[in-house]
Design brief:
The structure holds two protein chains of two kinds. Chain A is an all-alpha fold. Chain A is built from 20 helices and two strands. Chain B is an all-alpha fold. The chains are: A mainly alpha, B mainly alpha.
């Protein structure tokens, strides 16, 4: 199908997010006294939903897909819109709309919620730009565009010591890793003479004795990616930032921001440093990602198992899930026939994860809003007072653990099968063992909510508020998690087609 | 013309000085300066190799990086300000509300 629209309209999802953010900021600047939380949230959510609708339309119409002539390139090849970018933009837009809706209740008595909505939308714009980046310069600019609003969002509760400390730690690690990432880019530029992915790839193929410098540069770029995806060795910020940040921000960072890190990793390492050329230059980044994936998922799951606070457990579990998604890069082989399948499965896992993990963090947001505690014990008996929300939370927990009737099972199944087909049985086995461990701590939450008694008879009396929007967001995320079970076929097909186009 | 290896060595040196500062200083403002140093090390590479290859990509990107570094410092100063208001200090080792 020929697309009659001018090429720049391919950027409409990112433009919609950015313009909505600007509009919110403008209205808030012109009329700072008449801050209306509800209308701001409605505008923000509508902007994100419009972006999602356009993205889904583009995917359905085949914009930039291999069938319609490949990616649409803009700005002298610096940007390319293809199915991969649209797939990830769909994740970013859905998570953003869920978070904005939930934040309406979470920040109901905050003095300046409009700043929250515009910062969230700016970060989402940066993510949408990351997804279409085709040049290391665009990658770095977009990465900073995600990071800078995120630092402010984590420290958004300015008088809350936990939030400020979390923001500080996120900023310190983030600034350091973006400097390392930038130096890596500069080394790659030094040996290849270009920042456009295709030209970098050509340069990597003819390195000669400069392979050492390119290798150091690539290792540094891996470091920057590890920060964004909260993987070892740049994962230290994640538990602190997710625990201290307002819970909707934790949901946003651990779902959307992590997916943004992965879209960069997938595109940079397949387009700019293609496996065949890299390995012949003795820069074996697949091995590096294999080690990172193994260490990340093991560390994340073992650390999550010993937590006493639900939010911190979710933070470590999110590190564990970064390890699973890294399999999408670690289980590649040069010229392997299953490369598209395993990377597509990792993308589908991130898609499902976007809903179930956002939902889980938003349930924590609801618990914070109610004023019940943060530990497993304090969640005791919650299902008696809030059965609908607790059922939704149980769906998220079992789906995150990868139990069969939920969408999380299918995405993990395809991921591990893809790894086995590509000859990486040890990664799949390690992932399966880790999933078993994760079942322990996820089911602890469900047990506390449904089977345990409240810590004191009056512990749950604080649950009098009925945060409608927050409820709606949690229930919608649960419905999406369940609906992705029958709807998993189209998701995995789109993901595999998008990933196969990279090789 | 100075051979390009010297630029690489200079940039690596500046980067390591910045990294050393990040790892040894407790003061948040020193941290910001050290990160700035690391980013400028990358800028040296960009400008030097833009000259070496005879194209403008590196120089233009260096300008982008300078602007981004300024934006990052603006956010950083904001966070350090609320840090000072809440903890009465800008020592990055002081805030330890959360422990694993």
């Amino acid at each position: 199908m020929y697309n009659a629209l001018p090429p720049w309209t391919a950027l409409a999802p990112a433009l919609l997010l950015g313009l909505t953010g600007l509009a919110l900021l403008l209205v808030d600047t012109i009329r700072p006294r008449s801050r209306s939380n509800t209308s701001m949230a409605v505008v923000g959510a509508l902007g994100a939903l419009a972006s999602l609708a356009v993205t889904v339309w583009f995917v359905a119409a085949g914009t930039g897909s291999a069938d319609t002539g490949g990616g649409i390139t803009l700005f002298a090849d610096a940007i390319t819109v293809d199915t991969l970018s649209l797939f990830f933009t769909a994740i970013f837009a859905s998570v953003t709309s869920l978070v904005v809706v939930a934040a309406h209740d979470y920040f109901h008595d905050h003095e300046n919620p409009a700043a929250f909505y515009s910062l969230t939308l700016f970060a989402a714009t940066g993510m949408a730009l990351l997804a279409v980046a085709n040049s290391l310069a665009v990658v770095f600019v977009a990465l900073e565009m995600v990071s800078l609003p995120s630092y402010a969002l984590v420290a958004f509760l300015k008088t809350n010591r936990g939030s400020v400390e979390a923001g500080l730690k996120y900023f310190l690690v983030g600034a350091l890793s973006s400097a390392v990432f930038l130096f890596g880019i500069s080394l790659v530029y030094a040996v290849t003479g270009s920042l456009i992915f295709a030209e970098v790839a050509a340069g990597i193929g003819s390195l000669g004795d400069l392979a050492g410098i390119a290798g150091i540069g690539i290792v540094m770029i891996v470091g920057g990616v590890a920060f964004k995806t909260a993987s070892v060795p740049f994962h230290f910020w994640a538990p602190e930032a997710y625990e201290g940040a307002p819970a909707p921000v934790s949901a946003f960072l651990s779902s959307a921001s992590k997916a943004a890190g992965f879209v960069v990793a997938f595109r940079v390492f397949t387009e700019a440093f293609p496996l065949g050329a890299s390995v012949s230059a003795e820069i074996n980044w697949v091995l590096a990602f294999g080690v990172l994936a193994a260490v990340t998922m093991t560390l994340g799951n073992f650390a999550a198992a010993v937590q006493e606070e639900v939010k911190r457990m979710l933070a470590y579990s999110s590190i564990g899930h970064a390890g699973y998604a890294l399999i999408g890069l670690a289980a590649l082989s040069a010229g392997g026939s299953g490369n598209g399948a395993v990377m597509g499965a990792a993308m589908a896992h991130l898609f499902v994860y976007g809903f179930m993990n956002t939902g889980a963090f938003l349930f924590v947001a609801m618990a914070e809003r109610w004023g019940v505690g943060r530990t497993f014990e304090e969640y005791g008996g919650l299902a008696r007072r809030a059965p609908v929300a607790c059922t939704a939370m149980a769906v998220f927990m079992f789906s995150l653990a990868g139990l069969p009737p939920f969408a999380g099972f299918f995405s993990k199944y395809f991921l591990f099968m893809g790894a086995i087909d590509n000859g990486f049985i040890w990664l799949a086995a390690l992932g399966a063992v880790n999933s078993v461990i994760s079942l322990y701590y996820y089911s602890r939450v469900v047990k506390a909510m449904f089977l345990d008694d409240p810590t004191t008879p009056s512990a749950l009396d604080t649950i009098d508020a009925r945060p409608t929007a927050l409820y709606a967001a949690v229930v919608f995320a649960a419905v999406a998690t369940v609906l992705l079970l029958p709807g998993f076929g189209p998701v995995i097909e789109t993901a595999e087609a998008a990933a196969s186009a990279l090789f | 013309m100075v051979p390009p290896e010297w630029y690489l060595l200079l940039a690596a040196g500046v980067f390591c000085i910045g990294l050393f500062g990040v790892l040894t200083r407790n003061d948040a403002l020193y941290f910001l300066m050290s990160v700035e140093l690391m980013m400028n090390a990358a800028n040296i590479n960009f400008v030097a190799f833009a000259l070496y290859y005879g194209d403008l990509t590196g120089q233009v990107f260096a300008l982008f990086v300078i602007a981004l570094a300024a934006a990052e410092v603006a956010i950083g100063i904001g966070i350090i300000l609320v840090l000072y208001r809440n903890f009465g200090d800008i020592d990055v080792t002081v805030p330890t509300e959360m422990r694993w």
